[in-house]
Amino acid sequence: MADLDSEYLKEAVGETLAEALASVTIYQPSDPIEYVGRFLLQHVRNKRRHEKEKALEEEANRRIEEAEKVNSHKKEAAAVEQQVRHKKIKAEVEKKVEFRANLLAIYKIHESEKDEEIAKKLSDSEEAVRRYHEELKARQERAEERERRKYSQFRLGYIDYLQQNFKF
Predict the structure, then answer these.
(1) Where are the chain's structural domains?
(2) 0.70 exceeded by the pTM?
(3) Residue 125's CB: how many other CB atoms inside 10 A?
């Protein structure tokens, strides 16, 4: 049991007590027991202050890590948000392109319909021109026929006139 007690004392106060005794031999105070007592009290205060500083440093490091995680999450969120924005913009652009393509298709269909309408009007016009030419030709033929009749009548009348007035 004495070995356990000495082990405990070595671990608990051995190093600190050795430092206190070394300091007593160096400074040789007038009251070495009071000096050792104050040394030990100062050691306890320093140890507590060091533990508090260490705890504060660990807390600061933990907060820094949390802040870095938050910043990392914010960066990830910003990246995701940017990706979402890019996808939305891409979708809007695709919609606009599709809309313009549809407009162009509608315009082409409309133009095609206009072309068909124009072609129909042209074909109607061509038909009208063809009819006009046929009508004109028919009029000319009728006029020529009238002229032939007139000429024939004139000729017949002239022949009659000649026969009546001049005896052949």
Answers:
(1) 1-85
(2) no
(3) 12
